[in-house]
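pls design
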């Protein structure tokens, strides 16, 4: 026979560790609130509870307001990642999280977009102060925005890791290329990367960028559409020498496409 609510509340408040391992999965809010008062509630019990995606806001607020429970760094991180944690609670806790806990928040599917954005803001604010080893680790497993931020810093050992990041998007990379002041190793890294150098819009932006080495830009010209070449000839960001090459390439291909307009004699008049 199933225990009554009152019996489950009693066990949650006074039971031992073995009972708590079962009761953290209980559906009743009253039982879960009683768990928080149990002196045998361990960090592992609490983390198991906080990983549930169906917890009511009231319980999450109760955990956040309990100084003893919230002292744990892992509990703070789990609270921020729970989709039902109140927005203000999550925002308050973000500033206490370690760097890679913040990185995990940015990638957690259930975390609201606003909280992810705030976590990314905190990471980006710390990037320049991080040792290169931590930058490389973040470049490998950070969000698209974090990887893009690391690319903009231009640390040579970090660039390949950021470009290989599976979360990096073409939109984020194009955003990087819109910055005029980029370290040359970043442009060269993108131009040599087997994935990104094959993307048409990336090639166009590389040709357009004022700091792209001339030899790199010229290598992409044959693949740029004539219409886009014409647009590029009006782009004042480009170095004048490269703009002359672009104009010449556009004119050469335009002439090649024009049909021969010279009069032809008929065979009878030959």
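designed seq:
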């Amino acid at each position: 026979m199933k225990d009554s609510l009152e019996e489950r509340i009693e066990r949650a408040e006074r039971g031992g560790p073995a009972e708590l391992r079962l009761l953290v999965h209980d559906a009743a809010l009253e039982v879960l609130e009683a768990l928080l008062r149990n002196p045998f509630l361990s960090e592992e019990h609490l983390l198991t509870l906080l990983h549930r995606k169906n917890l009511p806001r009231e319980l999450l607020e109760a955990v956040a307001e309990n100084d003893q429970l919230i002292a744990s760094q892992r509990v703070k991180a789990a609270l921020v990642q729970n989709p039902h944690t109140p927005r203000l609670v999550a925002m308050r806790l973000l500033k206490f999280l370690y760097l890679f806990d913040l990185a995990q928040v940015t990638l957690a599917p259930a975390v609201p977009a606003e909280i992810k954005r705030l976590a990314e803001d905190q990471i980006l604010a710390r990037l320049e102060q991080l040792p290169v080893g931590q930058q490389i680790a973040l470049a490998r497993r950070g969000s698209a925005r974090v990887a893009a931020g690391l690319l903009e810093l231009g640390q040579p050992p970090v660039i390949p890791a950021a470009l290989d990041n599976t979360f990096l998007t073409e939109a984020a990379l194009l955003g990087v290329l819109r910055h005029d002041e980029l370290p040359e190793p970043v442009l060269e890294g993108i131009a040599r990367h087997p994935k990104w150098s094959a993307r048409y819009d990336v090639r166009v932006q590389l040709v357009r960028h004022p700091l792209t080495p001339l030899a790199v830009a010229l290598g992409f010209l044959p693949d740029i559409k004539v219409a886009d070449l014409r647009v590029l000839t009006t782009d004042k960001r480009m170095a004048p020498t490269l703009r002359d090459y672009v104009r010449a390439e556009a004119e050469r291909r335009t002439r090649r496409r024009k049909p021969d307009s010279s009069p032809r004699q008929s065979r009878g008049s030959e």
